[in-house]
């Protein structure tokens, strides 16, 4: 067995994820600037308090991060991290690139979101095997760091598809630890999961089964994982791993407070001007979407459905604007750059076909701006959330929480959020352009009082498991 060295700091709660709670920028003078992140894990760790002696293990993602590791030895300055203990790993850049872009984002993400054009891809050749060796090395680096940092019987929460091998590796190094793994993505059904080479499929499943508990965002994804285990490893796998479901919710208190700050009010005024008024003097309605230009988000089909709405329901022309925020994602991968370009092309085509001197049918924004997103949330009459496949989709939960007047939610049945929100949403098959156009018409036509009542129920459901509670529930489940 490998070394079971325990570091003197003895963390009792550990979180591991590719991206940490802080990132660094390095300027030409050699000055490092720290920027803190947000999200469920940050909220969760802050909820357990300093007496828990927690540590977050993450990877250095850029030159600034690597310089911070070089200067600190990887134990980051708590003044940069809001007092949180963080150990950042400087994994060799090529190993990280192969593991992160080559395997995690170009293979595992594509499998779980069922994104491959199978006549041409995937191709699991010698180049893939080289990248897989990097993925193994990346996971091993995390397992070794966690083994060093953890106190006896510590609780370790390992996050997501980037680190599917780490639970088994850590178990071999430190059999005393209580290990959880959480998947933030969907899980592919067995027939699709088995696109992976048989040995790789078994390694991914066996890696997660190294945890005491494997948890997912919905029952559907948890059941798919179990089905894959039976299909790939056999029906009588001697695992002992418990399966859990924790449907991450929106942080309602934070969102409501942040959505009423002056910068959001200012952006609302600008958006209202851009949306404008209909020829009869009434305010135009707004169909809002806020997404990264991630292939699974289905932005292009959403635009095509809006175009079909304008073609099939001419009464909406000049009376509605599609406010589409499509923030570029993973632009270091060619397929994502091409997708972002296609989103812009389709939006421009709709505007040139249907636009008039006083009406721009699609207001497309590609520069990330959180305050502007919140402003759009507040004024949306309809929210369009139509992913091909999504682990949860927090936008579907956030918009009802901050909506000023009530918002009709058009929701894909392939979003994890469908499990909780479908009763009060207008649901769609994300591939059906005509069906989505009809759903947009239904949502736009919904009476104001019904819309407000549905929004209230959606907001209550959306905030049922806020990030801090979501995190603490997983910790207590490990104790169980």
Could you tell me the strand content as a percent range?
A: 15-25%
Portion of residues within helices: 40-55%
Q: Which regions contain 5 or more consecutive residues with pLDDT less than 50?
A: 1-8
Strand arrangement within the widest β-sheet reads 5-4-1-6-7-8-9
Overall residue-averaged pLDDT value? 92
Cα-atom Rg, whole angstroms? 23 Å
Shape: globular
Distance between the termini: 27 Å
Class derived from helix and strand content: alpha/beta
The biggest sheet, with number of strands, parallel, antiparallel or mixed sense and barrel status, is: 7 strands, parallel
List keywords for this structure.
18 helices, six-stranded parallel sheet
Q: What report would you give on this structure?
A:
The protein contains 18 helices and 15 strands. It has helices at residues 40-48, 63-72, 93-112, 126-149, 166-173, 190-193, 198-208, 219-233, 252-258, 262-275, 299-312, 334-354, 370-379, 395-402, 418-421, 433-444, 448-462, 467-479; strands at residues 11-16, 22-26, 32-36, 54-59, 85-89, 150-159, 178-183, 213-216, 242-245, 285-292, 320-327, 362-365, 382-385, 408-412, 426-428. The strands form three sheets. The chain has a seven-stranded parallel beta sheet, sandwiched between helices. The protein has a six-stranded parallel beta sheet with strand order 12-11-10-13-14-15, sandwiched between helices. Strands 2-3 form a two-stranded antiparallel ribbon. Helix 11 packs parallel to helix 12 (334-354).
């Amino acid at each position: 067995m490998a070394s079971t060295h325990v570091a003197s700091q003895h963390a009792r709660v550990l979180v591991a994820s590719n991206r940490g709670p802080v990132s660094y920028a390095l300027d030409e003078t050699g000055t490092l600037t720290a920027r803190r992140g947000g999200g469920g894990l940050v909220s969760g760790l802050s909820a357990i308090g300093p007496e828990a002696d927690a540590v977050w293990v993450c990877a250095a993602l850029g030159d600034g991060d690597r310089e911070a590791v070089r200067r600190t030895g990887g134990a980051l300055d708590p003044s940069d991290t809001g007092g949180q203990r963080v150990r950042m790993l400087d994994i060799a850049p090529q190993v990280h690139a192969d593991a992160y872009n080559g395997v995690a984002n170009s293979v595992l993400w594509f499998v779980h979101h069922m994104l491959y054009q199978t006549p041409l891809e995937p191709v699991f050749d010698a180049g893939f095997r080289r990248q897989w060796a990097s993925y193994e090395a990346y996971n091993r680096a995390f397992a070794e760091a966690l083994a060093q940092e953890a106190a006896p019987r510590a609780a370790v929460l390992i996050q997501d598809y980037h680190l599917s091998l780490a639970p088994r590796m850590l178990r071999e190094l430190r059999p005393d630890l209580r290990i959880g793994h959480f998947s933030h993505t969907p899980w592919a059904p067995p027939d699709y999961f088995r696109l992976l080479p048989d040995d790789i499929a078994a390694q991914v499943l066996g890696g997660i089964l190294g945890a005491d508990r494997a948890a997912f965002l919905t029952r559907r994804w948890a059941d798919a994982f179990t089905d894959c285990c039976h299909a790939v490893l056999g029906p009588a796998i001697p695992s002992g791993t418990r399966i859990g479901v924790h449907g991450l919710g929106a942080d309602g208190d934070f969102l409501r407070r942040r959505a009423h700050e002056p910068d959001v009010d200012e952006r609302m005024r600008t958006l209202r001007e851009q949306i404008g008024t209909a020829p009869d003097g009434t305010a135009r309605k707004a169909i809002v979407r806020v997404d990264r230009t991630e292939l699974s988000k289905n932005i292009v089909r959403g635009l095509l459905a809006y175009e079909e709405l304008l073609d099939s329901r001419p009464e909406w022309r000049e009376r509605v604007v599609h406010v589409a925020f499509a923030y570029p994602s993973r632009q270091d991968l060619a397929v994502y750059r091409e997708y972002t370009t296609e989103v812009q092309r389709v939006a421009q085509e709709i505007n040139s076909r249907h636009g008039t001197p006083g009406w721009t049918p699609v207001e497309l924004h590609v520069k990330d701006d959180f305050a502007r997103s919140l402003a759009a949330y507040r004024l949306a009459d309809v929210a369009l959330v139509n992913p091909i496949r999504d682990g949860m989709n927090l936008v579907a939960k956030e918009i009802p929480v901050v909506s000023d007047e009530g918002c009709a939610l058009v929701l894909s049945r392939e979003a994890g959020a469908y499990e909780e929100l479908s009763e009060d949403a207008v649901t769609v098959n994300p591939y059906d352009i005509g069906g989505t156009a009809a759903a947009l018409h239904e949502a736009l036509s919904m009476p104001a009082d019904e819309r407000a009542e549905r929004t209230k129920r959606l907001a209550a459901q959306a905030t049922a498991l806020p990030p801090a509670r979501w995190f603490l529930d997983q910790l207590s489940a490990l104790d169980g």
